[in-house]
Amino acid sequence: MIVASVNVVLRIAFLLSIVTVSQTLKSACKEMKTCDMCTRKKNPECHWCPVTDTCHSSSIFNLNKCNSYENILKPDGCDSYKDELYDEDLSYRLATLCAVAYSEAPGQCMGYVKEDLDYTTNFEIIEQFKAKCDDFYLTYDQCSAILAISHEQEMLVLSYRGTTRTKQLIDEAISVMFNEKVDIDETSTGKVQEYFLNMYYKLSQCIDPVLEESIADYPHYDLVITGHSLGGAVASVAAYKLALKGIVPEGQLSIYTFGMPRVGDYYYAEEFDRLLVNKTWRIVHRKDLVPHIPTRTDTENTGPYHHGVEILYGVKAMLRTSSYKACYSNEDAHCSNRYYGGLAAVVSTAVGISEHKRYFRIPLGTYCEDKARLNAETLTTPAQPDPQATRSKRSIINESLPLLPRFQIEDEKCHSFIRDAEGNWVEKVGNKKVENKKVGNKKVKKAGKVNIINEANRFNITISYHFLTFVLSYLGSRYRY
């Protein structure tokens, strides 16, 4: 009896010693902040997880989110997950331009960017483009893009705006759910979502002449197409079209997108990657939901499919200096798709929306608006509020935002805006009337109703509950996404 008790005590003591050693190693490894420090010989019990950008011990009690084959054990493997052609610094700068693209006054917002965000470069806005892009029942004027230039970088950047209002999100959802994908080009076998192609056409009438003129003026400058969310999808279509036209010198066209949804099918992705070899990067912030919609539900290559190299930042607090993982398989199960397989999708969806809104810790959709509101609040809030005032503080602030003028688009034309001699943003004179070029479904307005003429006219079963969750989660939200 005594011997048995002693054995139990010894076993418990042994297990406690293992736990103690494990916690000590875990603490020591956790202090290692870089891959090189973590994997050097002085720390043989530590290994680096590139997905979360953290150092872990090899203890069985350690909670490591990397699979065993993903862990980096030696210093010479620290660069194995990087893409030599992907430019982290440029990616950060492009994210700031995506934030500027959401603004009604991009010139002013660029001032906020240069003042507030670190590591920016000398980009200047050449022109802003806007057009109505409503497809169904709702009316708004939220299709927009900006063209920027940096002589220091010898680079032109075309940045497309993402979704800005719940109305537009609903319109996108209706289009994606009810409309079949359409041919991206007459000579192509690839198909894309109709809404994305329509938005491209409606803005291209303004953009193409200005872009071609800028390329002719600066023939040795690189051209980068970028966009966040919906803007990334339209950027994909724009890059494809530009590559087909061949107006950009070889090797000077590339695309960086942030939180981009699936744009087209497998054949579109295949053709896209053939046209822009080693020139396309899809940046994904950990569990961002949008890159996983519309979801893939078939195996016949007709459903939604991603193109390009995925650059996964697997940390919640995504920084410019954070580590990333480059995934070269278009739909790599070990990249961000790992978060949306089986039951993991339920947990990921809960945080996927918030992580979609922030890249490099910048709230891309609301950054410029928030900065303008903060400045207006500082300038207009009185020291002693009038007790007779009935207006809310928010209404006072909103009334004080002439710095962000809204140019109401009431017609079917594409509108361009440039700076005048005094530095104010004004509509460019001499815009050509836009053909209301629409592909796929026809739209017939009658007594305020819209009849959608489509051969199938049925629910697209490739849209899963992820997309519906995304729509419902944003209804009533005041934030841009």
Structural class: alpha+beta
| Helix proportion | 25-40%
Per CATH, the superfamily of the largest domain is Alpha/Beta hydrolase fold, catalytic domain
Report the total helices. Answer: 12
β content, as a range? 15-25%
> Poorly predicted ranges (pLDDT <50, ≥5 residues)?
381-405, 432-436, 440-481
Mean pLDDT: 76
CATH architecture of the largest domain: 3-Layer(aba) Sandwich
**Number of separate structural domains:** 2
Task: Provide the gyration radius in Å.
Answer: 25 Å
Arrangement of strands in the largest sheet: 14-13-11-9-8-5-4-3-17-18
Shape: globular
Major sheet attributes: 10 strands, mixed
Q: Using the coordinates shown, work out and report the CATH topology of the largest domain.
A: Rossmann fold
Strand count: 20
CATH C-level class of the largest domain: Alpha Beta
Describe this structure as you would to a colleague:
- The chain is of the alpha+beta class.
- The chain has two domains: 25-80, ligand-binding face of the semaphorins, domain 2; 88-369 and 460-465, Alpha/Beta hydrolase fold, catalytic domain (Rossmann fold, 3-Layer(aba) Sandwich).
- It has helices at 2-30, 35-39, 88-101, 106-116, 166-178, 194-217, 230-245, 266-275, 344-357, 367-380, 393-399, 465-474; strands at residues 46-49, 54-57, 124-131, 143-150, 155-160, 182-183, 191-192, 222-228, 253-258, 264-265, 280-285, 304-305, 309-313, 325-327, 358-359, 362-363, 415-419, 425-427, 442-446, 449-453.
- The strands form six sheets. A ten-stranded mixed β-sheet has the order 14-13-11-9-8-5-4-3-17-18, with helices on both faces. A two-stranded antiparallel ribbon has the order 1-2. The protein has a two-stranded antiparallel sheet with strand order 6-7.
- The longest helix is centred in the N-terminal third of the chain and has 29 residues, at 2-30.
- The termini are far apart.
